[in-house]
Amino acid sequence: MSHYIVIFVAGIAGSFHCIGMCGGFACALGVDPAGKIATLYRHLLYNTGRVTTYMFMGGLAGMAGQSLILSDSMSSKLPTDIWHHHSTLANFVTILPETLSTGQRILAVFAGLLMLIMALQLFGYLQRLHILTTGLGSNTLVSSLRALLNSRSRSATLAFGVFNGFLPCPLVYAFIAYAAASANIFSGMITMASFGVGTFPAMILIGGLGQFINHHWRKRAVWVAGLFIMLLGLITILRGLFPLTGH
Amino acid sequence: MKNSLEKFCSHCLLPLGSYPTKRIVNGEDHSFCCYGCCLAYQVKHGSREEPEAAWLLVRLGIGGFLSMNIMLFSLLLYSGTFDVADSEMLPKFYWLLGIFATPVLFILGGPFIKESWEGALQGRLNSATLISIGAISAYGYSMLMLFTGGKNIYFDTATMILVLFTLGRYLEASGRAKAVRNVAPLLEAERQWATVIENGKEKRSSISKMKVGMNVRIRPGERFPVDGIVLEGFSSADESILTGENRPVIKSEGDLVLAGSINQKGSLLIECGALGAATQWGLLCKSVREALSHPSSIQRLADNVASIFVPIVLAITILTIIYWQSQVPLDQALLNGLAVLVVACPCALGLAAPLATALGLGQYIQRGCIIRGGEVQETLAKIRRIAFDKTGTLTKGATRLIKIENNDASQEEVLQRAAGLEQHSEHSLAQGIISVAKDRKLIIKNPERVQAVAGSGVMGYIEGELTAVGRSEWLIEQGLEMPSLFVKKLQNYESSGQTVVCVGWSGKIHGILLLDDMLLPEVPIMVETLKKLDMQTILLTGDLPAVASRIAKSAGVEEWKASMSPDEKCNFLEQWGGIEDPAIMVGDGLNDGPVLARAEVGIAVGSATDLARETADLVLPEKGLALLPWVILLSRAVHRTIITNLLWAFGYNIVAITLAVFGLLQPILAAGLMAGSSLLVVFNSLRLEQFPDNPADLAQVKSFISG
Question: Cβ of A59 under 8 Å from any chain B Cβ?
Answer without folding.
Answer: yes
